[in-house]
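Appendix B. One record, verbatim.
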Amino acid sequence: MKKTIKKIIISILIAIFILPASSSQAFAADNLWFHQDYPEWYVKTFDVSNPTEIFGERYTAAQVNWIFYSIPAHMMTALTLGRPEPWICVFSADLGSCITGAVQVLKEVIERMYNFFSFPIRLITDNETGTQLARDHNFSLYSFLYNNELSGTGYLLRKISKLTSLPEAKAQGFGYTSGGAAVQRLWQATRNISYGLLIIIIIAFALMIMFRVKISPQAVITVQSALPKVVIGLVLITFSYAIAGFLIDLMYVVIGITSSIIKASGLVDSGYSAIDLFKDLTSDRNVLVLSWHYVLMFLLGTIATIFSAGFFGGFLLILFFFVVLIATIFNSFKILWLMIKTYVSIILSIVAAPLQILIGIVSPIGGGFGQWAKNFIANLAVYPTVGVMFFLAFFFAVQATGGSTVGDFLARAAPFQISPRALESTTNWDPPLTWGTNSGRFLWMLASFAIYMMIPKVADIIKSMIEGKPFAYGTAIGEAVAPAVGVGKMGLQYTATESEIRYKSIPQGKAIPEGTARGKKFFDMLRAMGQVK
């Protein structure tokens, strides 16, 4: 049997190699230019008789080569933190003219990487207490994680440092360093309370197991159903603070990835790095400063858009501008309140985590680790989402100026160093039944305004997404504009009252001024519509 199989295989191989060689070769007609086979395409593309001629096949092959070359090129440039000078010098034939600049760039890259990944091993002494404090580097990843009390990685680093013979050194800091210590003490108190209640629950479970207490005719307390739940709950209560810190670390990772994507997309200036954007979205700016930046930028950008629009569009923009400006100012305070409320919610979630997990052990309804994790992640997601929405609001506002002189000025004055010509090459579409030519800029400004007005509703939007519930996005804009509409109605009512008083103060028999008569007719029409009293 084996010999037969070998003979069959050998016969097939001989047929494969011999039959094509002995068969007569048939030449097919040339295929259509847009439907070539591979040999025809290869011969035409790599024909050495006309190496300088450029046509579609060769240009496509060149583009594919460029794509393959760009992949390692981007990776190599990323290794030097976006500075291509060292690699240009390596691939250049004349090293003498570029070696000095390349060495300087490498020194800067090494210094920045050292500052970022360095360990704070040098110590300084506190003059008041005499204790040793770790030197805090501004860009040190180790210092950022170690000194962050609400960090899962920092929690592990501090625990590992206690295993060494060197005493633990606390670095001076702000924000999470001071606030986090207080939160940790409160969490420890609730954890100890949860331990005490858990002991009572374990004793109750033990008695119920011993006496086989029936919860319902269908369920009986057994060791198999009770103990795993208690053990898992005990582990989650013990590490709930570290889990919360780890989730906070992931939030910073998400912000860092978002910053890298925005930088790689070319939406910001070339001199503005992903690290700079990360700092602007985390520690260097706050929502109140960003909001007032946006109010001023919206003011200048809308004025520039008014002058660039047609007559009718410009007239509507002037009327629209005052209402929107008031709404923008109101919205800035709502955003500040959102961030304060989110911070308080995160702190309370960390403190109450042991108790909420304990409730899940007894009754999964209204408690448990899963519900706590969903709420905590929803609150943390507010920070990167608000940052991205601020960036998009500024981005569309800058693009609304169309890369003009005013746009260049706004791009330099605005945060994030947005490129004013990022969308300059795209086709500008004027939708039907709008303001005519140049209305695209006005629509960019409207998009910026809509995104900015939706920021206070970020928490509700995120919770709806996590829970799978629909959310009316349009109501977020309407609620933000409502205060401005109310102010406008108050002003309209005041003007109507003054016009009525002025009309009634004219003595009988005296001619009524034309302006007063027109105002009377206008406000009578509004009274008939129910807009004023």
